[in-house]
Amino acid sequence: MQLNNDEIRRYSRHLILPEVGLAGQKKICSTSVLCIGAGGLGSPIAMYLAAAGVGKIGVLDFDTVDFSNLQRQIIHGTENVGQSKAESAKVTINRINPGVEVVLHNTRITSENALEIIAQYDIVVDGTDNFPTRYLTNDACVLLKKPNVYGSIFRFEGQASVFAPHLGGPCYRCLYPEPPPPGMVPSCAEGGVLGVLPGIVGCIQATEILKIALGKGSSLIGRLLLFNALDMKFRELKLRRDPQCPLCGENPIITKLIDYEMFCGILPEPANPAQNPDEVTVQEMKRALDDPKLGIKVIDVRDPDEYQIAHINGVPQIPLGSLPQRFTELDPNQTIYLHCKSGIRSMKALKFLREQGFKYVKSVKGGISAWADEIDHSVAKY
Predict the structure, then answer these.
(1) What is the CATH number for 344?
(2) 237, 263, 289 — which closes off a domain?
(3) Is residue 380 included in any domain, yes or no?
(4) d(CA 61, CA 38)
């Protein structure tokens, strides 16, 4: 391929780098990258790859833009709230560099479509936020011999690596052979994330992609880079390929994609979720609050900072982290409704109290978010 005069001007600061030059820029322009996720990590990744001139960028995301995304997902703007993330990302990418081909995959990646989609690209970058998709992406990349540029973020900490067994390094399963129990690791929606953190980690991932495209430098293959924004410190761990890895080891037993929801212990939603015997609705919680004669106690198990953002009048708070020290404040023979933001932590609290002998404990389905949607619109959503 040849660069025209406009492209030479656009990429001139690359062209004068001896490590890039004209030949290197042509490599970048000939590279195709699939960005799985157009959120916090996907935003800086896609934007900087577009600016660098990566010839083809696939954007895979099935979600829509929400107000809560805007604090970190800089590829989207206020005017994009409610729109498809993939389509919103395409507009921004084309604004940055109209010469980039953007392919939209406005769908959820699954075991049925992953191999077909990933096979179309040279490099895959993982900008996801859940374990089933991380394992699926890893396994598909290993089977197709595609570099998997990995990143993850939580609160103030991030990590990045490149998984590529076909290039001599380990895969994601070598680092994490088993997923954590469901609900053990809070999502960004539950635990929060510093807005600039995905920008830092995403830029590291974009850097690794460009180095792979150029064939220059020392990549993160065989290394896990850890970043703590509060301390402003980077650490590095050496990673080794596990000879017993079921996917990339000496005797692999995973030779095709599996059911990753089941592998991660995530059970399918029941046909009628309201019939879950451990849950009550926000309407039932309202009845309990309106009629003290029912003798039902409602407890908020969120953190104090969240309580300041939004709370339900008359509902006392015992944060989940304090429950092991404070559960004796509660009557084990009383019916107790537990609520959090969305129902995840309240289920953890329910499990803990059951283990302490509490028989009449229920989790409020949807938590205070459902309360704001269905009962009191004046309660802030966050």
Answers:
(1) 3.40.250.10
(2) 263
(3) no
(4) 6
Per-residue pLDDT in tens (0 to 9) along the chain, 382 residues: 899 999 999 999 999 999 999 999 999 999 999 999 999 999 999 999 999 999 999 999 999 999 999 999 999 999 999 999 999 999 999 999 999 999 999 999 999 999 999 999 999 999 999 999 999 999 999 999 999 999 999 999 999 999 999 999 999 999 999 998 877 777 777 788 999 999 999 999 999 999 999 999 999 999 999 999 999 999 999 999 999 999 999 999 999 999 999 999 887 765 565 568 999 999 999 999 999 999 999 999 999 999 999 999 999 999 999 999 999 999 999 999 999 999 999 999 999 999 999 999 999 999 999 999 999 999 999 9
Quick one: CA dihedral 220, 36, 154, 263, positive or negative?
A: negative
Is residue 335 located within the same domain as residue 257? no
Q: How many DSSP H helices and E strands does the chain contain?
A: 16, 12
Residues 201 and 64 in one domain: yes
Catalytic residue among 29, 174, 188, 264: 188
Query: Catalytic: 188?
Result: yes
Place of tokens 């921004």: 92
Rounded distance between C-alpha atoms, residue 324 and residue 352, angstroms = 8
In a domain, 252, yes or no: yes
Range of the domain at 286: 273-374
Residue 382: inside a domain, yes or no? Answer: no
In total, how many domains does the chain have? 2
The residue from 204, 232, 263 where one domain ends is 263
340 is catalytic: yes
Strands 148-154 and 123-126: parallel
Q: 141, 171, 245, 340: which is the annotated catalytic residue?
A: 340
Which CATH number belongs to the domain containing residue 59 in this structure?
Answer: 3.40.50.720
In sequence order, which residues have a C-beta less than 8 Å from that of residue 79 and are 6 or more positions away?
Answer: none
